[in-house]
Amino acid sequence: MLKPFDSPRFLRTLERARDRLERQRAGDLGKRLLAMVQDLKPEPTHPPDRLVVKSGGRIFFVRTDEIDWVDAAGNYVRLHVKGESYLFRETMSTMENRLDPSSFVRIHRSHIVNTDRIKELLPGTGDHSVVLRSGQRLPLSRGYRDKLQEKIGNRS
Question: Which of 61-75, 96-110, 113-127 has the lowest mean pLDDT?
């Protein structure tokens, strides 16, 4: 501030300086809070090797690499493992995120398959079909077809 100055001019200048200091402090606080939140983020986890499934009063341990395919059942999913099936309280989207993306792919809004279990793809009018080694035939929706072909193409 340059001379001559009067009281109102001095008060305005003082108020601007206070505002600037307050914004600077708030910015520093924001940076510190952001750093703290970054430290709290969980480390990326690997997909689980097995799932704990409760069925009929019993508890089963299902290895994820043994799952042939998964289908939707309301707010549950049905895990198909070596000819057996288990109801698991999980949504399809949560299950899709839980399974290893290098081994499992969603082929329909109601189906996720283990790509190691796929025997062949059958073209059809509209939707295609996926045939598993077990002989099970599942629909392959158009919206998921490219993702499956990309996944299978990367494996061969």
Answer: 113-127
Whether pLDDT at 6 is above 50: yes
pLDDT at 2: 66
**Cβ distance 75 to 87 under 8 Å?**
no
Residue in 114, 112, 53, 43 with CA at minimum distance from that of residue 85 = 53
Q: Cβ–Cβ contacts within 10 Å for residue 128, how many? A: 19
- pTM > 0.85: no
Q: What CATH number does the domain located at 50-155 have?
A: 2.40.50.1020
User: Looking up tokens 């045939």, which residue turns up?
Assistant: 131
Query: Alpha-carbon dihedral of residues 121, 134, 67, 56, nearest 10 degrees?
Result: 140
Q: Name 130's Cβ contacts closer than 8 Å, sequence gap at least 6.
A: 107, 113, 118, 120, 121, 122, 137, 138, 139, 140, 148
